[in-house]
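Async update (no meeting this week)

Hi team, since we skipped the sync, here's where things stand on the single-chain job. The sequence we agreed to prioritize is pasted below, unchanged from the tracker. I ran it this morning and attached the output directly underneath so nobody has to dig for it. Comments welcome in thread, and please keep replies under the output.
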Amino acid sequence: MTSSVLRRASVAFPPLAIVLSISAAFSPLSFAQTASDQSLEPVVVTASRTVQKASDVLADNIVITAEEIQQSGQTSLIDLLQKKRGVEITRNGGAGNSSSVFLRGSNSKQVVLLIDGVRSVSSTLGDATWSAIPLSQIDRVEIVFGPMSSMYGADAVGGVIQVFTKKGSGAPRISFSAGTGTYGEQVVSAGVSGSVEGEHRIRYALNTAHEQADGFSSRVDAGQNPDKDGYRKRSMSGQFSWELAHGHELGLAFLNSRNNAEYDNGLSTYNAHNIADVDVYSLYSRNQLTENWSSFLQLSRSYNEDRSYTSALRSGLARSDSKQDQISWQNDFQLGTDIFQLLVERREENVSSTEMALNRGRAVNSVAMAYQLNHGAHIGSASVRYDNSSAYGSNVTGSIGYGYHLSKELRVSGSVGTSFRAPTYNELYRVDYGSLDNKPEKGKNAEVGLYYDDGKSDFTIAYYHNQITDLLTNKTCTKGSGTCAYNVNKALLEGISIGAGNTLGDFRLFGTLDLQDPRDKTTNKLLNRRAKYHGAVGVEYAKGPVSSGVSLAFSGYRYDDAANKNKLGGYALLNLQVGYDLNNDWQLFARWNNALDKKYEVARNYQTAGSNVFVGVRYGFK
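Output:
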């Protein structure tokens, strides 16, 4: 794995001298590393591509902290996200199998995944490879709901999820974690981090992990091999930075992960499996050019490589490789308490696939401007972005929002914005499915929200109305597959998202509820695999060395198909977690997911995990 990281990094970038010759701008990556130095208050980075106090963020959002990730006891990012407001997931079997994430009724192609500020997506499918993203490498997760295309370009229709890998600061620190559980699950991770203080401060963090499980049979329908379908995942991440002078910093970050997951492929005795690689590399230079002018240049490369093996023969291999190179230069100008932002980006995609006649490339050039207003009780934002693609033409998106602090704790806000989703390579170029006539989906969203947080109690209620036109759907065609992608439908994603929490002594009570109607307006059918309601309730306890929690995650029925004929029943899952601090360095922890052994499906004919337990120990967790 280490050799793979070095090999990829050696070819990922042009000479570093090119990077050093350009003064740069700040970005989600740079602020993720420095936010803790700037403010002790909770902050959000993703909503505006700059550090904001949580109370000043207009967009509806959720932040999952490192402490929450540890206390959850989860080992899968998908399982962590499944319990969050506004989030629905699907998975074709166990923890290592193909997974998707939906935000506010939008599909997985309408959600952008960022890893330390770098977009990670399969260009052929249009989805992030969620099953290969290792939770063991993640320090923090931010979920921002609503149209974000004016900030991030294509595909940010339902929102953006950004994961930040672990970073280093302070005295040298070693961390270690190991655990085992049901279905033969085993997870081991280790890392070292810290900083060398002085005139030229150096920060460093390096983490690695190995996961595996025997799993269970993915498919439950007739004609499928009933063998266990396990997975093996290995991963490594790192962040390094060097402060050349006060306000001038160079850095690099990477994440390398390989997931080898078995799946059912009929009654074949061959052990069908899928190998997915997700790699992200970035170099940056952050500079404070004047007292009021900051800039950040980020140069990045990401890979999403997929290999499916259905037999030992050469013909049994299906291959799809995506590579994306991006250069992003953002300048932020402080105008009193306001910020004006200017962003220039170029992203190049290249795909090689056994399902396409030719290897293809495409590029997008983008320019964006944004203004963040903060005047006493008044907060506001306005942004506009122009994206010009060599494959699907130009698109202009914009957003405007306003919020008012009724008190220090209570805020009301509203916004309108537009977005678009680009056609995937499959939807354009796949010989038996795509069409060069396909164009981007377009979204128009309006929302209003009320937010309260006094440090002990919090409450959120947000109403949204997101209209999607030129929806890309599958229709009967004369090509070999029998179905093709066409812009023929319209959709409406409408709903109310509610969340609340309250601290009573050593206890914290919380609950969420999403009421939604994600509907194909052309057919008047519910969009597949999305429920009309879902949520969670629970209570957490923390006192002295003990922390624990119990929660119930629930969802209404969904349909697995666009015609609404194959119904997936609703479900409620009881989950428990507990941790015990042996001392300041060592902690025992355990989780019990689906404690009542509920049988349910999130994808038709695919099994989900029954009652399962995981226990472990970690060192250096504080």
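Quick observations from my side:
The radius of gyration is 23 Å.
Residues 1-39 have pLDDT under 50 and may be disordered.
Reply here if anything looks off.
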